[in-house]
Amino acid sequence: MIYLDNAATTPVIPDVVSAMTESLSATFGNPSSIHSFGRQANQLVRQARDTVAKALDVSNRNIIFTSGASEANNQALIGYALANRDKGNHILTTAIEHPSVLNTVQYLHDRHGFDVTFVKPNFDGQFPAKLIEQNLQSDTILVSMMWANNETGQLLPVAEVGRLLASHPAVFHVDATQVMGKIPVHPREIGADFLTASAHKFHGPKGVGFLYYHENLKFDALIHGGEQEEKRRAGTENLHSLVGMTKALEIAMQNMEENYQHVQKLNDSLLSLLSEVDFYKNDFGATMPYVINIAFPHQNHDLLLTKLDLAGFAISTGSACTAGTVEPSHVLEAVYGESSPKLKENLRISFSELNTIDEIHAFAEKLKSLLK
């Protein structure tokens, strides 16, 4: 089986498994306990927080550990909106965000009466920062934007939006799930007040992630109970997963440039091998090489996906968080419209540094044979 669905999740690498196994077997104490077992566990939590903070170039006091980016997105959006209603009632986001953002702001609209704007890309799929500027209101308190789209790899103008918001009272939330561990991610450089990520997108375990927040922000906790995470997120820490996440992040940071160049070669190779095939790309400008969204006119993607799976190739047609549903990609729908036949033609191929050129050749040959 050849795995080419890394935007959904990535395989946990052996060094991460080893670190987690050691933690599970050797460090079972509760990090909140004051005896030696608790102190040993607490030290691992502190080390994990230091590792994430170093990667982001921020203070370790401004990192909250969560169960993943979905929780972190909910924490940032709901927590800030509810705690700052006196400052305004408008929330601004894009129509191509991950469901954990789209559904969260929709919840804030439906249950708490917030005014929400979902900004669509231009007709050509491009998303310049001026689209955010044009939709800003005097009572906008929160702007949420992903750094890279999980379905197309499209890079959004987070730095430009950050500069734009420097002169506006709205805070800026950036979902960095698809870029963390792949490119340098420094929230202060892009003006992000909140930034979120998940470990399983960079070869760490599932069920763990983090939220960065600017130290001056006021926001409500979502999970109440104990005083963990500076009273921001109650619950005994998921210790072995934190160890796995930070081990994976350390390895990703050490090999970032090499990994990026390798994945770029995989991307270029696939496109070259398919040059004789009738296809078009859904890339809409600058993209991450880790994701290719490619479409074949008049070819049903559900049928292609099934045939490729039976042949031993794992890919997808869009977000794993909408798998099993019959709805078309909301990302492509925002560009092409809900009635476009293009919504049923696309495949998402997503790479990691673990993939090889031989795997890409094998995939391209099978795809071409199925298209014939």
From TrEMBL:
Residues 246-273 form a coiled coil. InterPro entries: Aminotrans_V_dom (IPR000192), Cysteine_dSase (IPR016454), PyrdxlP-dep_Trfase (IPR015424), PyrdxlP-dep_Trfase_major (IPR015421), PyrdxlP-dep_Trfase_small (IPR015422). Keywords: Coiled coil, Iron, Iron-sulfur, Metal-binding, Pyridoxal phosphate, Transferase. Residues 2-363 form the Aminotransferase class V domain. It catalyses: (sulfur carrier)-H + L-cysteine = (sulfur carrier)-SH + L-alanine. Gene3D superfamilies: 1.10.260.50, Aspartate Aminotransferase, domain 1, Type I PLP-dependent aspartate aminotransferase-like (Major domain). Its cofactor is pyridoxal 5'-phosphate. GO terms for molecular function: cysteine desulfurase activity; iron-sulfur cluster binding; metal ion binding. Pfam families: Aminotran_5 (PF00266). Belongs to the class-V pyridoxal-phosphate-dependent aminotransferase family. NifS/IscS subfamily. This is Cysteine desulfurase.
